């Protein structure tokens, strides 16, 4: 059966492994177009590993990943075309330290488009303004705060107007105010681009403020225990106790 046309990502029976070591087995989930899905769970459950499988940096031991109705095989001829729809922002921001912000954001535009230098310059300034960094294009990453570096990473991730955005712990290392601003920015970018957003995070405030659905990975059983709206998961008496403990953690102000 082919994935439904309103479904952006379909994962079927995905097993992730390093050699004989199984990280997660038989994962099945979907992400709809313009949905924000957060991947949550305790340390070592495979959240970042799943993200790497979704973007093709790791190969599945078994199972299938579809983008729309196209099966995603990292080594296939079609993979590059599918990846062109991705915007990825890793935990570190992964900016080139020897390049200015303008040069960092311009890089994918120079590599993957036929735009002129002046068109790229205008687009870069627009993308930087979207993330609140207008006028900072001449700065180097080392001249920015942690929160500004994260936002610069987002500007580069959205350079090619991606259909799907992937974020790995976007709020890691940020103070609560900067983290909240970044959450607001992710919501704004989703609305502006109409993009599907996949976020790996352990931050409770982020989970409850941005997630349409949350996929909980469990290191013990090596599978997903639930997939649903985090507020509903907390309220539902049928929710696994392990999931409810993770989502409350004694902090009732987050939902």
In short:
The chain has 255 residues and is of the alpha/beta class.
Give an overview of the whole structure.
The chain is an alpha/beta fold and 255 residues long. It has helices spanning 47-55, 79-83, 101-112, 117-130, 146-157, 176-193, 204-210, 230-235, 241-248; strands at 7-18, 21-32, 36-40, 62-67, 70-71, 86-89, 164-168, 196-200, 213-218, 223-228. It has a domain at 97-153. The mean pLDDT is 90.
Work out the strand percent.
15-25%
Gross morphology is globular
- Helical/strand content category: alpha/beta
- Count of distinct strands: 10
Question: What integer value in Å does the Rg equal?
Answer: 18 Å
Fold blueprint:
Blueprint: E1 7-18, E2 21-32, E3 36-40, H1 47-55, E4 62-67, E5 70-71, H2 79-83, E6 86-89, H3 101-112, H4 117-130, H5 146-157, E7 164-168, H6 176-193, E8 196-200, H7 204-210, E9 213-218, E10 223-228, H8 230-235, H9 241-248
Parallel strand pairs: 3-8, 3-9, 6-7, 7-8
Antiparallel strand pairs: 1-2, 1-4, 4-5, 9-10
Helix pairs in contact: 3-4, 3-5, 4-5, 6-7
Keywords: ATP-binding, Nucleotide-binding, Transport
GO molecular function: ATP binding
Protein name: ATP-binding cassette domain-containing protein
Features:
255 residues, alpha/beta, six-stranded mixed β-sheet, four-stranded antiparallel β-sheet, 9 helices, ATP binding, ATP-binding, AAA+_ATPase, nucleotide-binding
């Amino acid at each position: 059966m082919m994935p439904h046309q309103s479904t952006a990502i379909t994962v079927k029976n995905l097993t992730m492994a390093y050699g004989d070591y199984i990280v997660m087995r038989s994962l099945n989930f979907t992400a709809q177009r313009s949905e924000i899905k957060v991947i949550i769970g305790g340390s070592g459950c495979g959240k970042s590993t799943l993200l790497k499988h979704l973007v093709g940096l790791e190969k599945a031991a078994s199972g299938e990943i579809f983008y729309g109705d196209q099966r995603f095989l990292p080594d296939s001829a079609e993979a590059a075309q599918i990846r062109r729809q991705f915007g990825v922002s890793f935990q570190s921001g992964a900016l080139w330290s020897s390049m200015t912000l303008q040069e960092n954001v311009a890089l994918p535009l120079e590599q993957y488009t036929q735009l002129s230098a002046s068109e790229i310059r205008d687009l870069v300034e627009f993308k930087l303004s979207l993330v609140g960094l207008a006028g900072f294009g001449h700065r180097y990453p080392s001249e920015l705060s942690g929160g500004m570096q994260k936002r610069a990473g987002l500007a580069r991730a959205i350079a090619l107007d991606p259909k799907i955005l992937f974020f790995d712990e976007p709020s890691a290392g940020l103070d609560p105010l900067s983290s909240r601003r970044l959450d607001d920015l992710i919501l704004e970018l989703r609305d502006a681009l109409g993009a599907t957003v996949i976020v790996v995070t352990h931050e409770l405030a982020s989970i409850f403020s941005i997630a349409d659905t949350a996929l909980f990975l469990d290191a013990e059983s090596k599978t997903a225990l639930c997939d649903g709206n985090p507020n509903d998961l907390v309220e539902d008496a049928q929710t696994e106790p392990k999931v409810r403990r993770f989502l409350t953690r004694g902090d009732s102000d987050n939902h």
